[in-house]
Amino acid sequence: MKRWLYQCLDKTLLYPVRVQNCSQTLYEALVGCLRMTKATGDAVWRKRADTVCQRLIDIQQPDGGFDIGYDFNFGRLHSKGESTSPELRGLLALMLYYEVDPRKDVANAAQRAASWIEQHAYPIDTARWTIPYAPYSTREVMVYNGVSFVASALGLYLSAFPNDRLRECYEGMVRYLLDVLIVPNEGSGYWPYADRTRTDLSAEQRGKIDNYHQMQQVEVHAIAQVRTPLDEQEVLIRKASAYVRSLMDANGLVPYYNNCRESPIHVWGYASCVSGFLLASESIPSRRADYRAAAEQVVRWLLDHAWNGAFFWPILGREGIPLDRRYYVRSDAWVFNALALAMQNGLDVEASVMEATYTRMEEQDFSGIENHATSPRIRFVRAALNGAGGILKSKAKATSA
């Protein structure tokens, strides 16, 4: 009965919010198009990159930052329209495009994003810098991955636009990330998902490790390392990638979180293992063959189980059965970008899959429903359900007493 009720609510009162111009969809599609240009040499992908780059510039916030485009909870409520540090992957995407076409409007957009970083980043001491996850909501770091996304974007930016102050910030953020990396053994390390200095976390929340986000961090640090190398950054890439590799099972599956080996596979994050392993292999030649094989396993699982001929199922059980059959454009954008890098590296991905994935995103105007988003409607319904659950538990306890 309870399961039936939630299924009904999921199709009505809890139905996902529609999101227009999500920054993640656009910057993942942009980098994917650039990678497809290199993989195929086909000018159509370069034209598509031009279109998506302009779209990304158009949604840049007045303050120079980027907004994900919807309300969500990161420990506090993020409101649509608020620039956040993780969305500075938008700057990374702009700089990858700028390397191909150093247009003045792209440079201007990149410089505005870099100014946003300069405004909100701050030194902890003489060696380390950091930046809040959502600086208009809190000055706390909150979640470590935002620091990685900003630092790596600066690594690309500095390779084209030297800046002593931002160089100090870049180096300081990488030192900070190395300092907060937990090293269970000499060869590997991980970041807890949330800043461990927070006092608002339960023991379970404090111990949470998000393996998919960690591979996204590996990916962007590896991209930055090619342009603006740092010894400390090489250590981050080596240890963080080795940790996730140690979690991969014989089928190539990686759990979303620690202590959840039986958890469903969310393909938007799982696909990041492709990008993370392939790019880490460039920084760590001794692991090249192993990491390439690991990336190939992930590619095969995605194509064999998640691809349905029109788009990628967003959430599947570990046996490959779809648990959510709806189309999420943001999820497909992450998979598209990862598979484009796989093609660029010579892995077996059919061009027809990439064409169909991009075409569907384009036909949907790079917009659509988003299961990570919240809204006043969804928050009200969930609060009502939680309240009702608490009342029922209290009654049951009183009856048993």
Give a quick summary of the entry.
The chain is mostly helical.
Describe the protein.
58% of the residues lie in helices and 7% in strands. The protein has 16 helices and eleven strands. α4 (89-100) runs antiparallel to α5. The longest helix is centred in the last third of the chain and has 25 residues, at 376-400.
Task: Produce the secondary structure layout.
Layout: H1 2-10, E1 17-19, H2 23-40, H3 43-59, E2 72-73, E3 77-78, H4 89-100, H5 104-120, E4 122-123, E5 129-130, H6 145-160, H7 164-180, E6 182-185, E7 188-190, H8 203-206, H9 211-227, H10 231-247, E8 265-266, H11 267-270, H12 272-283, H13 288-306, E9 315-316, E10 322-324, H14 329-344, H15 351-363, E11 368-370, H16 376-400
Antiparallel strand pairs: 1-11, 2-3, 4-5, 6-7, 8-9, 9-10
Helix pairs in contact: 2-3, 2-4, 2-14, 3-4, 4-5, 4-6, 6-7, 6-9, 7-10, 9-10, 9-12, 10-12, 12-13, 12-14, 14-15
